[in-house]
Specification:
The complex is a heterodimer of chains A (231) and B (326). Chain A is of the alpha/beta class and 231 residues long. Chain A has helices spanning 2-19, 34-43, 58-67, 79-82, 113-118, 132-139, 157-162, 173-179, 216-220; strands at residues 22-27, 50-55, 72-75, 86-93, 99-100, 102-106, 120-124, 147-151, 168-172, 185-189, 193-194, 197-201, 226-229. Chain A is elongated, with a radius of gyration of 21 Å. Chain B contains 13 helices and 13 strands. The chains are: A alpha/beta (231), B alpha/beta (326). At the A-B interface, strand 8 and helix 7 of A face helix 6 and helix 10 of B.
Chain lengths: 231, 326
């Protein structure tokens, strides 16, 4: 009897991980109804058998990922630069375009580098508080700011400027059109940076065939249209 | 002495010392990163819990203060805990911090959930903050963006002595969104209720400025228990123009008062405050560099009855942002 029970326990331990649904965590700084995005992923046959969780804040994704790593994740491409727990396996595109620039904006027109060093810059926390300084340095080499203020959502960036919480904001091109509320001037623009990417948990070999099957309508909820799978 | 007994005594002494050393920090709270000073009300306690979740990387301690007689406890706790940063919730904790700073013991602090911090901390280099009042820009420009795109003129009645900067900032900020703010001062009249009430009634029922909406500032000198029902509610129910405010309870079809409200998002505010705490502890920022900011994240509510009455139309794209109150 004891032998049989032991055998069943061992069997359960061996089989359980295989039966567990693969998990996908999605965090992309974007403006939209998270429920619409979550439903689109849930109803997409490409994600059948997978549990998808969409996050509106980076820190929520990171917090959940600390408790239990996702098998796959859709994240800003900057994630791979600062963290090594996921490996990029695919590139999201809008049309044929796989990248975008980040813009440094101000409500004032004439800004010198000296002004930057005296000013406060606001940006979306898309890589975690502790990595934000590095992100700014990587995007705008040579620009030093006196103070950095982070927000969770792109929609709060323009109010930062108008309300005077920040002298400058850093915003991606794709979010600018959605949040621009009044006239602002582009002080600088970064080199092109890859759009968000699809990642697989480091050290795993889960199948990635499903990437090419993701429906265009699903990607459109995040304002993308195609996936390019890395060879 | 028997050598084995001596070793046993040494081990006991060592364990006692270790135990005592372990107990000192937990007893005194020595060396904490953050001390949250709050008053005992549930809303502050709930907000403190959100802050603690945001600041999980740090050692955080709480101290409740309720009356002026709690100042010695506050002072002693600061001296014992020696926090790297204080978070001050409610005006009483701000008052205590300013008092201690003036005595020569300055501590870096971030304040919020207190009234009129922009004015209170204007010249304070030791305390940064997030003002708790929803800025006029946020409530009005959101109403324009999501509910009434054709909004061009909005009127506000205010007390100059208390809300000068708040209204001046709103006027400048709203101009960038193409909205003209028409301020109506009632200084002096606040002590003459009849005159003040006449002004309020005139603007709400006759709309002499031909405004598209009315922005209501939370001010207990303007909204009193004597004029709330007889003037504000009676006038608002005439539905001459939509009233935008900063209190959720005022958006209620059975009350018939405000049409639209923007209120602080507690989660958003906790995130904003904790970002400044992070800036001070990890990035070496000074409170004076951070300043006193306006809050950013808000939640929106609309009275469904008034929404229908004024024939507003919120697009599907924005509907998820606003809660309809039935």
């Amino acid at each position: 009897m004891i032998q049989r029970l032991t055998f069943l326990c061992v069997l359960a331990l061996l089989v359980a991980p295989r039966l567990r649904a693969e998990s996908v965590g999605v965090y992309v700084p974007f403006i939209g109804d998270i429920r619409v995005i979550q439903n689109a992923f849930k109803n997409d046959p490409a994600f059948r058998g997978k549990t998808v969780t969409v996050f509106s804040k980076f820190k929520d994704f990171k917090g959940m990922s600390k408790i239990s790593k996702f098998d796959f994740a859709i994240l800003p491409s900057s994630y791979g630069r600062y963290y090594k727990d996921y490996v990029a396996i695919g590139q999201l595109k809008k049309g044929d375009v796989p990248d975008q620039k980040y813009l440094l904006l101000s409500l004032k027109n004439k800004i010198s580098i000296k002004n930057l060093a005296k000013g406060t810059v606001g940006l979306v926390d898309e890589v975690g508080r502790r990595k934000t300084k590095s992100l700014i340095k990587d995007l705008f080499a040579g620009s030093v700011f006196k103070q950095i203020k982070r927000v969770n959502k792109p929609v709060d960036l323009f109010p930062m400027l108008v309300l005077g919480n920040a002298d400058f904001i850093i915003i991606s091109q794709r979010n600018l059109a959605n949040v621009k509320e009044s006239k602002a001037y582009t002080i600088d623009s970064s080199e092109a940076v890859s759009l968000p990417q699809i990642y697989r948990r480091q050290g795993t070999k889960s199948s990635q065939d499903w990437l090419t099957k993701i429906k265009r309508e699903t990607l459109m909820t995040l304002d993308f249209s195609e996936v390019e799978v890395f060879k | 002495m028997n050598p084995s007994r001596f070793i046993c005594l040494k081990q006991t002494a060592f364990l006692l010392i270790m135990g005592f050393a372990w107990m000192i920090p937990s007893m005194s709270g020595w060396g904490k990163d953050v001390l949250i000073v709050l008053s005992g009300d549930d809303s502050f306690k709930n907000f403190a819990s959100k802050l603690e979740a945001e600041l999980s990387d740090y050692q955080v301690e709480r101290l409740e203060v309720n009356t002026d007689s709690d100042y010695p406890i506050y002072k002693k706790t600061i001296e014992t805990v020696k926090p790297k940063v204080l978070i001050l919730l409610d005006n009483i904790s701000v008052k205590f911090a300013q008092k201690l700073n003036q005595s020569g013991q300055s501590h870096k602090a971030i304040a919020s959930m207190a009234l009129n911090l922009k004015r209170l901390l204007a010249d304070d280099p030791h305390i940064a903050g997030v003002a708790y009042e929803v800025p006029g820009y946020t409530v009005v420009s959101s109403f324009k963006k999501y509910v009434k795109p054709e909004l061009e003129k909005i009127v506000v009645i205010y007390r100059e002595e208390e809300f000068h900067t708040f209204v001046k900032d709103a006027k400048t900020q709203l101009a960038s969104s193409g909205v003209e703010l028409i301020p109506v001062k009632i200084d002096g009249f606040a002590h003459l209720p009849k005159k003040m009430n006449r002004i309020i009634k005139k603007h709400l029922t006759r709309n002499p400025e031909n405004a598209d909406a009315f922005w209501l500032i939370n001010d207990n000198k303007l909204l009193t228990k004597d004029n709330f029902a007889s003037i504000w509610i009676t006038s608002a129910r005439k539905n001459k123009l939509p009233i935008l405010c900063g209190l959720k309870n005022f958006v209620n079809p059975s009350l018939g008062f405000c049409t639209f409200a923007a209120i602080p998002s507690e989660a958003g505010l906790a995130s904003q405050v904790s970002d400044y705490v992070f800036s001070v502890i990890d990035e070496g920022a000074l409170p004076a560099d951070i300043g006193v900011d306006y809050l950013l994240e808000t939640k929106f509510y609309i009275d469904e009855t008034k929404y229908k009455h004024f024939e507003f139309s919120i697009t599907d794209k924005h509907r998820y942002l606003i809660e309809f109150v039935k």
